[in-house]
Amino acid sequence: MKKIISLVLIIGFVFYSCKNEQKTEEKRIPTVTEIAPVSPEMMKNAVIYEANIRQYSPEGTFNAFAKDIPVLKELGVKIIWLMPINPISKIKRKATGDKFTSEIEDENERKKYLGSYYSVSDYKAINPEFGTLEDFKNLINKAHENGIYVIVDWVPNHTGWDHPWITAHPDYYTQNDRGDIIDPINPDTGESWGWTDTADLNYDNMNMRKDMISDLTYWVKEANIDGYRMDVAHKVPVDFFETVSTELKKIKPVFMLAEAEQPDLLINAFDMQYGWEAHHIFNKISKGEMTVKDFDDYMVKIDTTLQDDDINMNFVTNHDENSWNGTLKERMPDNKNIFTALTYMMPGMPLIYSGQEYDLNHRLKFFEKDSIPKTKGNYFELLKKLGQLKNSNPALNGGKVAALYERIDTKNDQVLMFERSKGENKVIFIGNFSNNEQTVKDIGLGKMLDYIAAKNLEFNKKDIVLAPWEYRILIRQE
Predict the structure, then answer these.
(1) Domain limits, the chain
(2) Which intervals hold domain Glycosyl hydrolase family 13 catalytic (predicted)?
(3) Which of 57, 253, 274, 364 could tie 38 with a disulfide, CB 3.0–4.6 Å?
(4) CA 164 to CA 46: how far, in whole Å?
(5) What is the mean pLDDT of the chain?
(6) C-alpha distances in angstroms, 45 versus 125, 187, 447?
């Protein structure tokens, strides 16, 4: 009888343990949250947000970032671009200046330096700084629950020096005459770009391409991500990206962003490219080194070089600009608002970089832990209003079937004025891009809503006086 009771107890315990283990497993695997497939419809009124997970919160984790996804929704964000999520190589890990961490003798000092996100040691793993694969999947689900798509920053041009391919497949890398793997070289000078913490990949090797594509498809299948931002896309063959796009779209529709300004990448591989030239024009106008005419020339240029369904990403800052070239306060000390508004009003998709919404006023460290402010102020409210207008007014459509852009002559070369329109929807931007007060005469626009000031105005052959760097966003009320 005792044996029977013991056997029953053992069976019961095993059944209870298995049942609990099954519950734990079910709890551990995040439920996939579905979202409408990537489409031209979702691109037309989107704002994109670049998430620097390491610096976004004191914790620097996926979970801490995911808590704020509803805040990004307030800003009109439809796409989140996550900076690289992969582990960072320890060999030749960057510290400061040209130093590697291995050159720092003090252990506590050495631990401060976390290396560059763009020196990847394993394409199919998660950086433990940020959390686990489960945490990453939860972030994707949280974004999808809020109607937001997530793309991942991918580094196709090079890997870190302890990536498994270094030893398993040295032929996957560019080698010198001695057979040594080398870091990326500037073909114009024959000198190193300075990315000495990385090893240059060899795209003449078809097996490497095949393995790279396998790793890219992994994240779409495993974590249900919605596409990629490709680092230094202009350094990788166009036909490789065309193959990538074809293979990924066999799984699901994806959104592809190229860190490049290269129209042929947009023909069959990418949806959007960087508006680098416009960004540099903004910086120079803000300093008085360029004028509205330079912006006009740029708009005429892209009208001929880009196809109708190509998208430019418009920005006043990003991770490179903030860390290496200066804050908005440094580059646009008294006029960031007008340039920010312009990124929403001109054709294309506006970018917000981590901390920009909180008026970040310091250069984020690149190789160490840092942080951003989290106090909402006037600039946050401006981005919120601009995002709402971008999301809701078809006249600002910037996707595959963009709204029309029509330059309006003001007879004043310091003032930029244009109309965006889609069907019956019309929005007008007028801005003074100078340090002096400017007057635009005989404006006959009729009844308009001054969107930022939330005032109804009537312009019947009326002059508009604009203070230095002042702008108006006007919506037709007819």
Answers:
(1) 27-403, 415-476
(2) 37-390
(3) 253
(4) 38
(5) 93
(6) 33, 39, 25
CA-to-CA distance for 104 and 113, rounded, in angstroms?
A: 10
d(CA 284, CA 291): 8
CATH topology of domain 27-403: TIM Barrel (3.20.20)
Q: Are 233 and 256 in contact (CB under 8 A)?
A: no
Cβ atoms 317, 275 nearer than 8 A: no
Query: 269: closest CA among 305, 304, 301, 227?
Result: 227
277-300 pLDDT, tens per residue?
999 999 999 999 999 999 999 999
β-strand pairing of 77-82 with 158-160:
unpaired
Q: What is the pTM of this model?
A: 0.93
* Half-sphere exposure for 457 (CA within 13 Å, toward CB): 21
- Contact between residue 407 and residue 299 where contact means Cβ atoms under 8 Å apart: yes
Residues ≥6 apart with Cβ < 8 Å to 288: 435
| Amino acid sitting at position 193 | W
3-state SS record for the chain? CHHHHHHHHHHHHHHHHHHHHHHHHHHHCCCCCCCCCCCHHHHCCCEEEEECHHHHCCCCCHHHHHCCHHHHHHCCEEEEEECCCCCECCCCCECCCCCEHHHCCCHHHHHHECCCCCCECCCCCCCCCCCCHHHHHHHHHHHHHCCCEEEEEECCCEEECCCHHHHHCHHHECECCCCCECCCECCCCCCECCCCCEEEECCCCHHHHHHHHHHHHHHHHHHCCCEEEECCHHHCCHHHHHHHHHHHCCCCCCEEEECCCCCCHHHHCCCEEECHHHHHHHHHHHCCCCCHHHHHHHHHHHHHHCCCCCEEEECCCCHHHHHHHCCHHHHCCCCHHHHHHHHHHCCCEEEEECCHHHCCCCCCCCCECCCCCCCCCHHHHHHHHHHHHHHHCHHHCCCCCCCEEEECCCCCCCEEEEEEEECCEEEEEEEECCCCCEEEEEECCEEEEECCCCEEEEECCEEEEECCCCEEEEEECC
Distance, in Å, from the CA atom of 96 to the CA atom of 103, rounded to the nearest integer, reads: 11
Look at residues 427, 459, 467 and name the one whose alpha carbon lies nearest to residue 443. Answer: 459
Residue 328 vs residues 281, 282, 321, 355, 431: alpha-carbon distances, Å: 14, 11, 9, 11, 19
Q: Which CATH number fits domain 415-476: 3.30.1120.10, 3.40.50.1370, 2.60.40.1180, 3.40.120.10?
A: 2.60.40.1180
Place of tokens 């209870």: 16
Cα separation, 123 vs 159, in Å, equals 9
Please name the residue that has the structure tokens 């309006």.
408
Tokens 């003090």 map to which residue? 106
Q: Which amino acid would we find at residue 466?
A: L
